[in-house]
Amino acid sequence: MQTIVVKLGTSVLTNHGRGLDKAHMVDLVRQCAQLKQQGHRIIIVTSGAIAAGRELLGRQPGTETLAQKQMLAAIGQSQLLHTWQSLFALYSIAVGQMLLTQADLENRERYLNARDALLAILQEGAVPIINENDAVATTQIKVGDNDNLSAKVAILARADTLLLLTDQPGLFTADPRSHPDAELIAEIRHIDDQVKALAGGSGSTVGTGGMATKLEAASIARHGGVDVVISAGHGQNVIINCLQQQTGTRVLSLKAPRRSRKLWLLAGPVSKAKVVLDSGAAAAIAKGGASVLLVGITQLRGPFSRGDVITLCDEQGLNLGKGVARYDSVAVAQLLAHKEQTIVETLGYSNGAMLVHRDDFTNFTDSV
Question: Residue 32 class from Cβ within 10 Å (0-12 exposed, 13-18 middle, 19+ buried)?
Answer without folding.
Answer: buried
